[in-house]
Write a structure and sequence with these properties.
single chain; about 120 residues; alpha+beta; Alpha-Beta Plaits; four-stranded antiparallel sheet
């Protein structure tokens, strides 16, 4: 099982309320629905980090940085499922649209994306 994880930090000029409105907006939801329809992940999740004292405590316990604002996760059976998308012009166009929307709210320089592997 392969999982794509995108941990996002909001831009410094975007307050938490505005970021949460973007995250829960019909526009962002529609783009995610179109992406899911195209790439057919086994599972897809969008989560917001809770702005609670416990998260601040966890962050400071080990000298960590500021917590991320949100995460996007997609699960796939294997890496072969991902390879076919890079050559698809429709996929590339959708990703450009997604990135343009996110750029209004997300600080890409402080956000991270990566793949993980989960096996038996």
């Amino acid at each position: 099982m392969i999982r794509f994880v995108h941990c996002m930090m909001r831009r410094s000029d975007v307050d938490e309320t505005e970021f949460r409105r973007f995250w829960n907006s019909p526009e962002f939801d529609a783009l995610n629905q179109r992406l899911a329809t195209l790439i057919e992940p086994i599972q897809a999740r969008r989560t917001l980090v809770l702005n609670i004292d416990e998260n601040q405590k966890l962050m400071h316990e080990r000298g960590g940085a500021e917590p991320f604002d949100a995460m996007l996760e997609l699960w796939f059976d294997n890496g072969r499922a991902l390879q076919r998308f890079n050559a698809d012009p429709g996929y590339r166009a959708l990703m450009a649209e997604m990135e343009a929307l996110q750029a209004r709210f997300v600080d890409f320089s402080r956000s991270v994306r990566f793949f993980t592997e989960w096996g038996d």
